[in-house]
């Protein structure tokens, strides 16, 4: 049977593209080599990590965070197996949800490894080795990403002692000590999970700051907060070796600026140095599909590769490796293939770190505005001056709004604080509509809410906050 669209990969990019295309009347098949749909995000990424972040936060809160509220005498007992069971059940309900959506939208889900034979043809090899060839008007490569190693260092990831994020969400006991190589989002989130459950966590980061690329003031303050929680963070440290030892593993690192090397031991080492686009075995070279110098599938402004009829979206192409970016590209591409005008606004893609407190950001950082020579103004408001935050003992953090100095148009928003990942969206919507800090500051916000700090920061950008 000929399809309008064959999608290779059922992660947030691929499955969302498939559903949207089917909703728009196209005949769609999705090829997935995993046993379940949903890609990295639903199986071993966003969803299981958030299940563990929530459960471990509840544990930690019960253990340390309730006495000041007058709730005493709690001594929670950890049942890690049950916690992992909650994570697995969460994954199952989400991946089953994708299977349901395929059925509902009459999408053919085909289990097997896809290979591009050229425009219009995809070969699928099942686990049993049987091959079939699908004919289609358009092919979408949505094969995502895989764990990247440490540049210049040979690391044997066995997912037991030296683990990637995939092993780190499935440990069968709480390690006494955990070294996280890489102070990015994934390392800090999973480091937080195990620290809350009792592990001594050391983070080794090459850059001078954790969360490289985030607003500098935000990452500095956030680093202090994590250190206060007990995370040992070593920045400006270049890892030169990760090796197994008698009782675990050891990591050797030296100051990036030069100096003596240090070796530390731990039960578990988590390698969280980023991800690489995944195109292994896809036959792209044979099909003449060009990659860029970082191994990503090269695409034009309409997600099309250099071979007409072959498109790519998500982690396998340029841009932030985020599930919602992949999803939005999936929707836009489906619209384009259905003859509509699909578009993604890459200037307004929020990023969230789901630690406690959360860190959320959208648009430009101060560093980016300075580098671009844009004249800007800053409005800031701390949660310590917000009534709801005081009531919840969630006063750590602040909101920062960056607006164009002349036009007052909001160019960026950054939040560190409880619930930051939800609050960031009002700034995102405002930016989508080209709104100003005055627009945000004059919008009535319910009292008492954490979101009032967003309004106050906006008031600060165009005039003065009231409560400070
Ligand atoms: P993927 O989700 O990687 O899906 C690609 C799919 O293609 C996979 O299922 C793979 O099996 C399949 N595939 C590959 N090659 C073939 C082939 N030849 N034939 C058939 N199938 C193939 N992002 C967020 O936005 N928020 C988060 O909180 C978040 N947390 C994360 C936590 C962790 C631990 C990790 C690892 C990632 C996290 N991410 C998060 C990133 C997010 O998972 C990715 O950005 C997202 O999954 C990318 O979607 P995708 O559709 O491009 O690819």
Give the structure's gist in a few sentences:
With about 475 residues, this protein is of the alpha/beta class. The protein folds into three domains: about 5-145 and about 275-340, FAD/NAD(P)-binding domain (3-Layer(bba) Sandwich); about 160-275, FAD/NAD(P)-binding domain (3-Layer(bba) Sandwich); about 350-460, 2-Layer Sandwich (Enolase-like, domain 1), CATH 3.30.390.
Q: What keyword list fits this structure?
A:
Dihydrolipoyl dehydrogenase; five-stranded parallel β-sheet; binds flavin-adenine dinucleotide; globular; 3 domains; flavoprotein; 468 residues; Enolase-like, domain 1; FAD/NAD(P)-binding domain; flavin adenine dinucleotide binding
CATH architecture of the largest domain: 3-Layer(bba) Sandwich
**Named CATH topology of the largest domain:** FAD/NAD(P)-binding domain
User: Radius of gyration in whole Å, from Cα?
Assistant: 23 Å
Query: How many H/I helices?
Result: 14
How does the major sheet shape up? 7 strands, mixed
Query: Oligomeric state of the chains?
Result: single chain
Shape: globular
Number of strands: 22
Find the CATH superfamily of the largest domain. FAD/NAD(P)-binding domain
Relative strand content? 25-35%
| Fraction of helical residues | 25-40%
CATH class of the largest domain: Alpha Beta
How many domains make up the 3D coordinates? 3
Amino-to-carboxy terminus distance = 66 Å
- Heterogens: flavin-adenine dinucleotide
Ranges where pLDDT stays below 50 over 5 or more residues in a row are none
What is the averaged pLDDT score? 97
- Briefly note the structural class of the backbone: alpha/beta
């Amino acid at each position: 049977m000929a399809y309008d669209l064959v999608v290779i990969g059922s992660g947030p990019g691929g499955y969302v593209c498939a559903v949207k295309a089917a909703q728009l009347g196209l005949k769609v098949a999705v090829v997935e080599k995993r046993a379940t749909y949903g890609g990295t995000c639903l199986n071993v990424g966003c969803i299981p990590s958030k299940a563990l972040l929530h459960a471990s936060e509840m544990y930690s809160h019960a253990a340390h965070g309730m006495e000041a509220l007058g709730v005493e005498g709690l001594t929670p007992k950890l049942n890690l197996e049950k916690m992992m069971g909650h994570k697995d059940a969460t994954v199952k309900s989400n991946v089953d949800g994708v299977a349901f959506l395929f059925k509902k939208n009459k999408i053919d889900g085909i289990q097997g490894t896809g290979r591009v034979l050229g425009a219009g043809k995809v070969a699928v090899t099942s686990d049993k080795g049987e091959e079939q060839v699908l004919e289609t008007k358009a092919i979408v490569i949505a094969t995502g990403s895989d764990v990247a190693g440490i540049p210049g260092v040979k690391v044997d990831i066995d997912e037991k002692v030296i683990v990637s994020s995939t092993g780190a969400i499935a440990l069968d006991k709480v390690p006494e000590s955990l070294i996280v190589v890489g102070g990015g989002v994934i390392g800090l989130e999973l480091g937080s999970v195990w620290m809350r459950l009792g592990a001594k966590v050391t983070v080794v980061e090459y850059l001078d700051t954790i969360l490289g690329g985030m607003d500098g003031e935000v990452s500095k303050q956030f680093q202090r907060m994590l250190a206060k929680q007990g995370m040992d963070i070593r920045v400006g440290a270049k890892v030169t070796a990760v090796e197994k030892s008698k009782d675990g593993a050891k990591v050797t690192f030296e100051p990036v600026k030069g100096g003596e090397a240090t070796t530390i031991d731990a039960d578990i080492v988590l390698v969280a140095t980023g991800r690489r686009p995944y195109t292994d075995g896809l036959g792209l070279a044979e099909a003449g599909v060009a990659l860029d110098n970082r191994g990503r599938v090269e695409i034009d402004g309409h997600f099309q590769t250099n071979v007409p009829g072959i498109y790519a979206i998500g982690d396998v192409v340029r841009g932030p490796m985020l599930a919602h970016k992949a999803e939005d590209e999936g929707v836009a591409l489906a619209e384009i293939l259905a003859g509509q005008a699909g578009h993604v606004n890459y200037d307004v893609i929020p990023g969230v770190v789901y630690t406690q407190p959360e860190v959320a950001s959208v648009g430009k950082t101060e560093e980016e505005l300075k580098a671009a020579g844009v004249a800007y103004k800053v409005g800031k408001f701390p949660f310590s001056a917000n009534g709801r935050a005081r009531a919840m003992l969630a006063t750590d953090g602040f909101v920062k709004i960056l607006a164009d100095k002349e036009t007052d148009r909001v160019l960026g928003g950054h939040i560190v604080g409880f619930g930051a990942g939800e609050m960031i969206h009002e700034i995102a919507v405002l930016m989508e509509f080209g709104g100003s800090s005055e627009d945000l500051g004059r919008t009535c916000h319910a009292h008492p809410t954490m979101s009032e700090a967003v309004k106050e920061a906006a008031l600060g950008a165009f005039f003065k906050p009231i409560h400070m």
